[in-house]
Write a structure and sequence with these properties.
Layout: H1 2-48, H2 53-58, H3 66-77, H4 82-92, H5 101-113, H6 119-166
Helix pairs in contact: 1-6, 3-4, 4-5, 5-6
């Protein structure tokens, strides 16, 4: 009896691993969409209000990336330079852990360039960044479409193989 409970536990664990891998794909899409929304919000605020970087980051209300923006805002308030604040914020935020190195580097680069040029230059930078984020979102959706079934099926089969081997 205990043996069968253990086998059931192994099977359920393998299926849950597949679900968690699938959920990471969903999280990546959510985070990228939130970053796109943040960049669009920055564009509007820079166009009409000319806020400081601290104000930009502290006014973000998106739950998906609030940890990131709060970290950056706190770093800026503590006197770190904008580039160091952004790098540190991205490294210390678990919400961006689902992003690839390329995506993290791109976001770091874009956010670090805010405030370094005139209004038109910043707006142009943000427009280009939104287009690039759209590209990342499309790739993430395609990866999810391709890989979500693979993760689920593989986790079920791996669980079944382990059970068969242990029987």
């Amino acid at each position: 009896m205990i043996k069968y409970i253990g086998l059931l536990f192994i099977f359920v664990t393998s299926v849950l691993i597949g679900f968690s891998l699938n959920e990471r794909l969903n999280d990546k899409i959510k985070i990228l969409k939130s970053i796109k929304s943040l960049l669009q919000q920055f564009k509007i605020e820079i166009t009409y209000q000319m806020p400081t970087l601290t104000q930009l980051f502290s006014e973000c209300t998106d739950y998906n990336i609030s940890q990131l923006t709060n970290n950056i805002s706190e770093n800026l308030k503590n006197g770190l330079t904008s580039e160091k604040s952004i790098i540190n914020g991205i490294e210390c935020s678990s919400c961006v852990s689902v992003l690839s190195k390329e995506e993290k580097y791109f976001i770091t680069d874009v956010l670090s360039k805010l405030g370094t040029s005139d209004t038109d230059g910043q707006i142009s930078l943000l427009e280009n960044a939104v287009e690039r984020i759209d590209y990342y979102i499309e790739n993430a959706i395609e990866d999810k479409r391709k890989n979500s079934k693979v993760y689920m099926t593989a986790s079920i089969y791996i669980g079944l193989v382990i059970i068969i081997v242990l029987l």
